[in-house]
Specification:
single chain, about 300 residues, alpha+beta, lpxc deacetylase, domain 1, five-stranded mixed beta sheet, 18 strands, about 25% helix, binds zinc ion
Length: about 300
């Protein structure tokens, strides 16, 4: 196996700048399986992570449907963004993909097959930590001859809509600064500045759980959402207290951390590594995340089409 040689080579240049380091694409070594119920659909579901070839990206497979249809985890396959990001191709759909995708990006995984036995991954504890741990235990394998596809933007990219605002700028690392603002005494304004690396993601972002406001619960259920939601996989923000399981809040600012988790998951749908971008986002949500991701994708695609002489 040539992989070990490449790993050694990377380790031999620990101080090299990212752009000069020949970062290879990655996948996982072993299979990993998780089971539970879907957050929104409430369905019983089993998810299996499987290694995938270089340049195949991240793909979902519905193993419960005839022919095991494949749905690419790419922006062009987003079919809904109400309280979660749903993908679909023809009749096959997968709901609430963002936590699984966030975990993969937290580990820098470029290629991954995700098999699901229903139309939603298991909610687990409402965070991405169970997925992250499963992927980490599966082990990471590098494709030394297939360089990572990086998202490179020519300059500032912005997006604003209905009080939400996003700004991306070129950087030499993946940074996120996210702010949530709510008209609520318990969570008025929270900001998280986060520089992406695997250890930091595992400790500061992956454990943050999904949340909703108490006054939304009945409405969500009436809309057919949050059917599998409970205090075992979500935090409910009440008028004057947080409703959680016995564990309580995992961080005082768990909510903005979860927003960062979701944003990382949604941006994964661009299909390129985000190692060269700083993102500032205020009041982010899935619909806006996806629109912003499309703007980033367009700016990067336009830049790639320019003659090389026009590039720095
Ligand atoms: Zn989420």
């Amino acid at each position: 196996m040539p992989d070990k040689n490449r790993r050694t080579e990377i380790a031999a240049h620990p101080d090299a700048k990212r752009q000069e380091r020949p970062l290879g694409q990655t996948t996982i070594l072993e299979e990993a399986t998780l089971e539970g119920i879907g957050l929104h659909t409430g369905c019983k579901t089993r998810l299996t992570f499987r290694s995938a070839p270089a340049n195949s990206g991240i793909r979902f497979f519905r193993t419960d449907l005839p022919g095991t249809p494949m749905i690419p985890a790419r922006l062009g396959f987003v079919v809904a963004t109400v309280r979660g990001t749903n993908l679909g191709l023809h009749e096959a759909k997968v709901h609430t993909v963002e936590h699984v995708l966030s975990a993969a990006t937290g580990l820098g995984i470029d290629n991954l097959d995700i098999l699901v036995t229903a139309n939603e991954p298991p909610a687990m504890d409402g965070s991405s930590l169970p997925f992250f741990k499963a992927l980490m235990q599966a082990g990471i394998k590098t494709y030394p001859d297939s360089p990572k596809r990086l998202l490179t933007i020519p300059g500032e990219v912005t997006y604003e809509d209905k009080g939400s605002s996003y700004r991306a700028t070129p950087s030499d690392r993946f940074e996120i600064a996210a702010t949530i603002i709510h008209d609520h005494p318990l969570v008025p304004k929270l900001t998280l500045e986060f520089v992406m690396d695997t250890a930091g993601y595992a400790a500061a972002v992956a454990p943050a759980r999904t949340f909703c406001f108490e006054h939304e619960v009945q409405f969500l259920k009436s809309q057919g959402l949050a059917q599998g939601g409970s205090l075992e996989n979500a935090v409910v923000i009440g008028r004057d207290k947080f409703h959680t399981n016995a564990e309580g809040l995992r961080f005082p600012d768990e909510f903005v951390r979860h927003k960062v988790l979701d944003l990382i998951g949604d941006l994964t749908l661009i299909g390129r590594s985000l190692l060269n971008v700083r993102i500032e986002a205020t009041r982010c949500g899935h619909a806006h995340n996806i629109e912003f991701a499309k703007r980033l994708n367009e700016a990067a695609a336009k830049m790639r089409k320019q003659p090389a002489a026009a590039l720095k």
